[in-house]
Design a protein that fits this description.
Strand order of the largest sheet: 2-1-3-4-5
Distance between the termini: 58 Å
CATH superfamily of the largest domain: Cytidine Deaminase, domain 2
CATH architecture of the largest domain: 3-Layer(aba) Sandwich
Order of helices and strands: HHHHHHHHEEHEHEE
Shape: globular
Radius of gyration: 19 Å
Structural class: alpha+beta
Length: about 230
């Protein structure tokens, strides 16, 4: 059995690697980053597999990474090899397909509170994420995509990326959500500009923008609630 180093034992309080804990039947003791470490398998010359998996969860978010289907995006944003990124995407896609065969529970969005409840995991992310949530005619979520990940100060979003997925999944309407790592949820002029741009694009394509919600540690802001969309 592979033994952990003294450094890992001290830093992470471990005597076994996550894979060995899983083999020994202690799956309930493993956290999200531990399970991700099992999938990734190894770290790099710069990071241990523990540090790598923890960084991915911390910076990308567990929900965002579970919904991302493009390994190139994960590879680029998280600075990991395409091989590791492909393993992550394959693992979640496999789970999604198995889960789907049993009838996945539908998520219905009725208002800003539902949006916040659905995406509130974004409030602790250390980078700014911009997500598209795509609805059918009955306001059920049919697709959820992490469109872009920016720096601590902002991210760039183009209507092309937002509405490309809307067309591909035949969405009846869309919601966009992004987080403010600063902790404050009040919109900036840049946020206002993005909202106007996406609303105009949605009107042209007849795929309306239902809401733009900003999520932060201190709460959330809804453009719909403020009657700005």
């Amino acid at each position: 059995m592979m033994q952990v180093s003294d450094y890992i034992a001290k830093k992470y309080g471990r005597t076994e690697l996550p894979r060995e804990e899983l083999i020994n039947g202690r799956i309930d003791d493993l956290g999200m980053s531990d399970l991700l470490a099992v999938i990734i398998g190894t770290g790099s010359k710069h990071e241990s597999v523990f540090a790598l998996s923890e960084r991915i969860i911390r910076e990308y978010g567990s929900k965002s990474i579970s919904e991302t289907k493009d390994p190139n995006q994960i590879s680029s944003v998280m600075r990991i090899s395409p091989n590791k990124a492909a393993k992550i995407v394959a693992a979640f896609e496999l789970g999604r397909r198995f889960y789907g065969t049993g009838g996945r529970k539908k998520v219905i969005i009725r208002g800003p509170e539902d949006i916040y409840e659905y995406a509130k995991d974004m409030k602790t992310l250390v980078k700014e994420h911009f997500r598209g949530i795509y609805l059918n005619s009955k306001n059920c979520v049919i697709h959820d995509e992490n469109i872009s990940v920016g720096s601590l100060t902002g991210t760039l979003v183009h209507p092309r990326e937002v509405f490309k997925s809307a067309i591909e999944c035949s969405a009846g309407s869309i919601i966009v959500v992004h987080n403010h790592p600063s902790g404050e949820f009040e919109p900036s002029e840049h946020d206002d500009g993005i909202t106007r741009m996406l609303k105009e694009a949605g009107d042209i394509l007849q795929i309306p923008l239902v809401d733009h919600v900003i999520i932060a540690e201190n709460g959330y802001y809804s453009y719909n609630k403020e009657r700005k969309v």
